[in-house]
UniProtKB/TrEMBL annotation:
PROSITE patterns: AMP_BINDING
GO MF annotation list: acetate-CoA ligase activity; ATP binding; propionate-CoA ligase activity
The organism's taxonomic lineage, starting at the top: Eukaryota, Metazoa, Chordata, Craniata, Vertebrata
Enzyme Commission no: 6.2.1.1, 6.2.1.17
Domain spans labelled Acetyl-coenzyme A synthetase N-terminal: 47-107
Name of this chain's protein: Acetyl-coenzyme A synthetase, cytoplasmic
Organism: Tursiops truncatus
GO cellular component term of the entry, any: cytoplasm
Start and end residues of each stretch annotated as Disordered: 1-41
Domain AMP-dependent synthetase/ligase: 116-528
NCBIfam families in the cross-refs: PRK00174.1 (NF001208)
Gene that specifies this protein: ACSS2
Keywords of the record: ATP-binding, Ligase, Lipid metabolism, Nucleotide-binding
Length: 701
């Protein structure tokens, strides 16, 4: 990594902490010359040329990319048609309508037969225990997928049917999703950390006719009896008058009984002592995966689908109420995830890519399965967690497989930061070339630690802003082209036209803060909310006609860099001034004693709203009035007196969803001593809530 170059007005700067707080006035980090030299996009100028072309001639730009894929029949009519403006009629987006293809064919058959990469490893699978490993080549994966597609066909699954998948991170999960894609059936993957209630709700919403699940698995030390949860969900479905007729169960923990070499996609027998997990069996509904696979044939002709046919449904929580079934389609999604993967991680044939996200989330769909496979990449598929068996697990995996591109979430980085540098530096990490983050704003403190400690100052960091709804990256640096600013997702990807709007919907020019929207469709945009197109229109297009509304606030600095300031619903209004919770949290975690912080608005008789902060301290620090004074001073200095918090509470842990998102809605209630919490079924550890209620701040500090 080159030395940080001075930009803007910030002056000399004295040390990392100060840089971290410098925000838009801060320094930028040039792409390392050794990365730029071989990069697909080697300079900012080249990025700008390509970006301009992608907006001015979207049909030609994406049309050229589409030529790299296999199409059964070419696009007969317009390459792109859309309406983003509710006042002019129904919202719709169509890319390549009338062209036919198959996503599974493109990510497997095309790679094996056209690209001749059949013997290349598609996945290194690393189980929960470090000794549990296996690998699967593209050819082996194709064989497994054909077998399982035939299994599904035999069970009556046809094009357009919905199939629910509730599985841990094992190779069979990838096989199951690709088999659905081969048949043109829609997979609806439900993260295996979700409750039976959530699974039931999702099965019902899209009336799935079949469920694929697993006996049980370990997450670190914790045993999850998944089949039991699946049974509960199916029982609930039955009670609600919707009997799911078939449940296919992968024997994962119990696979020792199966012997080895059963199939290349199956991991070796579990080495950890296995408790006797009791699997209840529903005759007539439950079927073992391995038994069905033994009978299935090798050949399976893919179902040719329209580019605009749905590929999958993935549920995402709405800011209120019922989860939304986000629908992505065959052609556009395939093009978009393949292209973002190639450019954002600057993919080269010899790379070993690792995205730590669970496939149950969009990040896993796009950057564990579809994006890497569409490029013929080798990836790591990891079942475990970063802290098991110890804090250095991620870095030991990086060394084991010589991972070159590594993609994770800021919450994981902050978690590991708490344990210091040694668990990281114990491992070489010499193979790493590019680091990525996704899911939430990364505070500059965490960015700098990731860059300095994990990346040893030589790996660019791609801070990728996107959403379940967008299918792939929207704002992101390109590793060989974009000078990075810690905490900024920098610039739009190809085909993405962002704008910043004020409350009245006017586009703001230059340096500005407001609503982040997108002005024109990119191929990976969701097409509808499953079964509720009206909800799609009102959620994303109603507030500002003519724009896709992200629901996020953002700031554009004097250099045109975009900084996500957090969800609009996390914006605070203190004495008539808009403040973003992310901004205050970032200032708090820059203090050496603070590992993580969450800030919520709290009613205040004079200011309207004031700030109530929850802080989790790093090991070895204690909470005291001296510390709260230091933190307030820090915020005053970083942002201004307006942002001085009224309350700072010690929070040994924060309430989080299972995907690691801090539940600010719950924190707001705790701050107000309001025990009417609503639905807290998604909180990973409910005991955290009681603990925080017991230690509320009672007076303004
Ligand atoms: O608020 C933004 C935040 O995560 C939201 C999307 O969440 P989800 O649909 O669960 O998808 C997460 C993985 C793509 C966004 O509206 N977000 C995501 N990435 C970033 C981010 N906020 C800031 N910076 C990011 N890089």
């Amino acid at each position: 990594m080159g030395l940080p170059e001075e930009r803007g007005r910030s002056g000399g700067g004295s040390g990392v902490r100060e840089e971290a707080g410098a925000r838009s006035r801060g320094r930028s980090w040039s792409p390392p010359p050794e990365v730029s030299r071989s990069a697909h996009v080697p300079s900012l100028q080249r990025y700008r040329e390509l970006h301009r072309r992608s907006l001015e001639e979207p049909r030609e730009f994406w049309g050229d990319i589409a030529k790299e894929f296999y199409w059964k029949t070419p696009c007969p009519g317009p390459f792109l048609q859309y309406n983003f403006d509710m006042t002019k009629g129904k919202i719709f987006i169509e890319w390549m309508k009338g062209a036919t293809t198959n996503v599974c064919y493109n990510v497997l058959d095309r790679i094996v037969y056209e690209k001749k990469l059949g013997d290349k490893v598609a996945f290194y699978w690393e189980g929960n225990e470090p000794e549990e490993t296996t690998q699967i080549t593209y050819r082996e994966l194709l064989v497994q997928v054909c077998h399982f597609s035939n299994v599904l066909r035999k069970q009556g699954i046809c094009k357009g049917d919905r199939v629910a998948i509730y599985m841990p991170m094992i190779p069979e999960l990838v096989v199951a999703m690709l088999a659905c894609a081969r048949l043109g059936a829609l997979h609806s993957i439900v993260f295996a950390g979700f409750s039976s209630e959530s699974l039931c709700e999702r099965i019902l919403d899209s009336s799935c006719s079949l469920l694929i699940t697993t006996d049980a698995f370990y997450r670190g030390e914790k045993l999850v009896n998944l089949k039991e949860l699946a049974d509960e969900a199916l029982e609930k479905c039955r009670e609600k008058g919707f009997p799911v007729r078939c449940c296919i169960v992968v024997k994962h923990l119990g696979r020792a009984e199966l012997g080895t070499g059963d199939s290349p996609s199956q991991s070796p027998p579990i080495k950890r002592p296995c408790p006797d997990v009791q699997i209840s069996w529903n005759e007539g509904v439950d079927m073992w995966w391995h038994e069905l696979m033994q009978e299935a044939g090798d050949e399976c002709e893919p179902e040719w689908c329209d580019a605009e046919d749905p590929l999958f449904i993935l549920y995402t929580s709405g800011s209120t109420g019922k989860p939304k079934g986000v629908v992505h389609t065959v052609g556009g999604y395939m093009l978009y995830v393949a292209t973002t993967f190639k450019y954002v991680f600057d993919f080269h044939a010899e790379d070993v890519f690792w995205c730590t996200a669970d496939i149950g989330w969009i990040t896993g769909h796009s950057y564990v399965t579809y994006g890497p496979l569409a490029n013929g990449a080798t990836s790591v598929l990891f079942e475990g967690i970063p802290t098991y068996p110890d804090m250095s697990r991620l870095w030991s995996i990086v060394d084991k497989y010589k991972v070159t591109k590594f993609y994770t979430a800021p919450t994981a980085i902050r978690l590991l930061m708490k344990f210091g540098d040694e668990p990281v530096t114990r491992h070489s990490r010499a193979s790493l070339q590019v680091l990525g983050t996704v899911g939430e704003p990364i505070n500059p403190e965490a960015w700098l630690w990731y860059h300095r400690v994990v990346g040893a100052q030589r790996c660019p960091i791609v801070d990728t802003f996107w959403q379940t709804e967008t299918g792939g990256h929207m704002l992101t640096p390109l590793p060989g082209a974009t000078p990075m600013k810690p905490g900024s997702a920098t610039f739009p990807f190809f085909g993405v036209a962002p704008a910043v709007l004020n409350e009245s919907g006017e586009e703001l020019e230059g340096e500005a803060e407001g609503y982040l929207v997108f002005k024109q469709p990119w191929p990976g945009i969701m097409r509808t909310v499953y079964g509720n197109h009206e909800r799609f229109e009102t959620t994303y297009f109603k507030k500002f006609p003519g724009y896709y509304v992200t629901g996020d606030g953002c700031r554009r600095d004097q250099d045109g860099y975009y900084w996500i300031t957090g969800r609009i619903d996390d914006m605070l209004n203190v004495s008539g001034h808009l403040l973003s919770t992310a901004e205050v949290e970032s200032a708090l975690v820059e203090h050496e004693a603070v590992a993580e912080a969450a800030v919520v608005g709290h009613p205040h008789p004079v200011k309207g709203e004031c700030l109530y902060c929850f802080v989790t301290l790093c090991d070895g620090h204690t909470f005291s009035s001296t510390l709260t004074e230091e933190l307030k001073k820090q915020i005053r200095e970083k942002i201004g007196p307006i942002a001085t918090p009224d309350y700072i509470q010690n929070a040994p842990s924060l309430p989080k969803t299972r995907s690691g998102k801090i539940m600010r809605r719950v924190l707001r209630k705790i701050a107000q001593n309001d025990h009417d919490l609503g639905d807290v079924s998604t909180v990973a550890d409910p005991s955290v809530i009681t603990q925080l209620f017991n230690h509320r701040c009672l007076t303004i500090q």
